[in-house]
User: Fold this.
Amino acid sequence: AVSSAEEFDFFYLVQQWPGSFCDTTKGCCFPDTGKPAADFGIHGLWPNYAKCKTRHDLLLDGAAPGLEMVTKRKKKKCWPEFCNNGEPLKIAAIADLLKQLEANWPTLACKSGKSFDFWSQEWKKHGTCSDLGQHGYFAASLGFKARHNLTAILADAGIVPSDDKTYFLSSIKDAIREGTGFTANIECNRGVDGETQLFQVYQCVDRAGENLIDCPLPMTGNCKDRVQLPAF
Ligand code: 5GP
Ligand code: 5GP
Assistant:
């Protein structure tokens, strides 16, 4: 079969802090499997370009999928998405991973309550642009999360969930660099009282999906010098 994966440079492995996802005006809902652990949860593994691409760049790459969209919007693309004609996720392909996925990749959006719908969306939008295949995509994501337990890495540095403590963003970045061996990007959001919260951690992964790398792109991320890690 012809691979329809696009060229890309690295992945973001994105994990969300449930306390911050839930402490917003929008709120959150627990999945039908019950309240997740007070632990980072996977959001997705996202193929990324190291430099945004124009329509011309993409034509040179021979990347057909998704190109119509670029033409229409006349916009640069900073990552490929929705490749391979939206190939749907098959539950049979990940049958052996379902338990681990429920525990480590739970949905918190107030949608269906089914984490499978979240995994399907991430597969269709991002996974189809990787070369990993359905099982490989989910196994790789789970593997990175298991190898680098962010919740434990932060706790070892004294950064524990709390509704009143604040932490220096720099100490969070340092703890992750020391605990994983690589730099990561951090994204913040605002709680219902306007406080700045650590929302998502973006670790960077080589394009083979095998090893962490230092993140090649800086991220603004909406943080401040001091941030909270709200309890969940
Ligand atoms: P937001 O606009 O909330 O930052 O992102 C919305 C969605 O756009 C994300 O959930 C993700 O699917 C996609 N997205 C945002 N930033 C990136 C990025 O840097 N790389 C990739 N591959 N997707 C992204
Ligand atoms: P993205 O943000 O990756 O573009 O899209 C995420 C999609 O998955 C959205 O449609 C969002 O509603 C849905 N979703 C379901 N559960 C979650 C969750 O726990 N976190 C996030 N960020 N999105 C979720």
Remarks:
- Strands lie at 10-16, 41-48, 167-168, 185-190, 196-206, 212-213, 226-227.
- The helical segments are 18-22, 55-61, 67-73, 98-104, 115-125, 133-147, 150-156, 169-180.
- The pocket of guanosine-5'-monophosphate (ligand 1) is lined by residues 12, 46-48, 79, 125 (CB under 6 Å).
